[in-house]
Amino acid sequence: RISQMLESWSGEYRTPIERLHRFVGILDDSVDSLSRYGCPMGSLNTELGKADPKLQEHAENLFKLFEEWLSDQFAELGYAGRAHELAIRVMAIGQGISTLTHIHHDTGLLKRERLRLRNWIDQLADGSSECL
Q1: pLDDT tens digits, one per residue of 84-97
Q2: Where are the alpha helices (DSSP H) in the chain?
Q3: What's the whole-number average pLDDT of the chain?
Q4: pTM reported for the whole predicted model
């Protein structure tokens, strides 16, 4: 399902910035669920890592699909040499936002931090920023 979704986004959104914004939109799509339960992929990986490393390896592949797709977007945006680093940063920020939103049951936190992430992506696109 994740592969199909990412393929769909690649076809539906013309530019890498639009596609990156769509990725960040996952946070908006899941705000209530993230507040109540946290990120299901993050939770799955955390729990499987404790109990069954082989299964966790399979769950990790879900993250790798996103990381590869995000890397492609950053490469197309002109950051080929740092694309994977930037992809990991986006994933880490998203997971952090999800976790803290769940811990604090604060959807406002998610909305504020998601906006900060979108602004950072916009700054990367126009060359005015490289770091958060």
Answers
A1: 999 999 999 999 99
A2: 2-12, 16-29, 31-37, 40-51, 53-74, 83-104, 107-126
A3: 91
A4: 0.89
